[in-house]
Design a protein that fits this description.
The chain has about 425 residues and is mainly alpha-helical. Helix content is about 80%, strand content about 0%.
Length: about 425
């Protein structure tokens, strides 16, 4: 075989559900990492005070969506490869390169910004952007290890990253470092872990010949559409932080960030569990099996829509009364926790519905992407209306109502594509 031909080496991608012990280990690795991130935020809020922590939280919140730019490649691989029944080196190379490209671009921009103004706002936001994108790259590489039948490399990588977070936080606490210095230290550790994880992949999965031009358009389209819905959902959260900035309430970003960390942890663990079972789900919902997935999606979306309407009625009643408005505007964690509980339930239903629908066939990906655009616009408009009045509570309220709007939009689009659902699910 000459240097211009592809390697014939293949690795069969298993469609069997992961073993329970592996699921527990993997979930523990990601869960402890999320918990460490939450404890880091609490510690930094104490160390830096409300004003500085608010700037840090705003940067992290606005850049959180970048995590889902690299992970779109992982999501496409987990859906497509079980149906292909093989994992070839050139497919893996494309996945790695698609995921790594935004990280490299952001790192170059960050180095330039730090060189020009080491303590500037641009450098802070680029540091947060690099952290989010590089975390997504590590998740994608870990997904390839799982498809190779080596899930413990996933758990190991995030176990080491978990240890890095409190270590960096302790250094920042003792040395009195700034947010930029803290994120730079975290980023250094993350990049080292990611490089080690990449090195553990087969050499021709990372450093082989050029990309297959025939495969790139198909895989690129799948990456774009599968990743777009998650990316827009997180970008919708970023619009809430933007609304706080525009309203001059950046300090409220701190309470919102701490509250959203809980929802983010639940959402991240849910998405991770879905990814663990995605190869099996993709194979099960292929072809005629997609009908059951669409029917269940319809029921979940309808339940989320009704839950959103009930929440809207309660908020409207409270806003109509001075005492109710005062309660919502207190910024107490009891109020934030109550709204957060509703948001977690509704978003869980919509995330799972989206997951089922995406794994039925490729034609529905335009529906999920369109609904995600509707959800993004709804979040921004609602946030602009309520955040100036209610601060962090208004931000969470916008997320809840926008989730219901997204559920409604996706259900309507789904029924238009499959009108039989409207009668068969009642």
């Amino acid at each position: 075989m000459n240097g211009h031909q592809w390697s014939t080496t293949v690795t069969v991608a298993s469609v069997a559900p992961p073993r329970l012990l592996d699921v527990v280990r993997l979930a523990a690795g990601r869960g402890v990492f999320r918990l460490a991130s939450q404890l880091m935020a609490v510690a930094l809020a104490v160390v830096w005070g409300a004003a500085v922590f608010g700037q840090f939280a705003n940067a992290m919140g606005l850049c959180a969506w970048l995590l889902f730019v690299p992970t779109a490649a992982e999501k496409a691989a987990l859906k497509a490869l079980p149906r292909m029944r093989m994992l070839t080196p050139h497919v893996a190379r494309l996945v790695v390169r698609i995921a790594a490209a935004p990280v490299l671009a952001l790192l170059a921009a960050f180095v330039a910004a730090v060189t020009i103004d080491p303590s500037g706002t641009v450098a802070l936001y680029l540091a947060a952007a690099c952290w989010a994108a590089a975390t997504g790259l590590l998740m994608t590489v870990s997904g390839l290890h799982r498809l190779r039948g080596r899930p413990l490399l996933d758990a190991g990588a995030f176990g080491v990253l978990t240890a890095t977070v409190p270590a960096a936080t302790t250094v920042t606490w003792l040395a009195g470092w700034t947010p930029i210095a803290h994120l730079s230290l975290l980023l250094t550790g993350l990049l080292a872990i990611t490089a080690s994880s990449l090195a553990a992949l087969p050499r021709d999965w990372v450093l082989g010949g050029g990309a297959n031009r025939k495969l790139l358009p198909a895989l690129g389209r799948s990456v774009w559409l599968l990743g777009l819905s998650e990316l827009l959902d997180v970008l919708a959260l970023s619009t809430v932080y933007l609304a706080l900035t525009l309203a001059g309430r950046t300090t409220d970003s701190g309470p919102l960030y701490l509250a959203v960390l809980v929802a983010s942890m639940v959402g991240a663990l849910l998405l991770y569990q879905l990814k663990l079972y995605q190869p099996a789900t993709s194979a099960r919902l292929r072809g005629t099996g997609g009908a059951s997935g669409r029917a269940r999606t319809f029921r979940l979306l309808r339940a989320a829509e009704r839950g959103g309407l009930a929440f809207a009625a309660v908020v409207a009643a409270m806003m109509a009364l001075p005492a109710g408005r005062a309660v919502l505007a207190t910024e107490s964690y009891a109020v934030l926790g109550a709204i957060l509980a509703v948001e977690v339930v509704l978003s869980t239903m919509v995330i799972y519905a989206n997951f089922l629908l995406e794994n039925t066939n490729s034609s529905v990906l335009t529906l999920t992407s369109t609904a995600a655009v509707v959800g993004l616009l709804a979040t921004g408009l609602i946030a602009l209306a309520v955040v100036p009045w209610l601060g962090a509570a208004g931000g969470l309220t916008a997320l809840v109502l926008a989730t219901a709007v997204k559920a409604r939009a996706l259900r309507v689009l789904l029924v238009r594509r499959h009108p039989e659902l409207h009668t068969s699910t009642y």
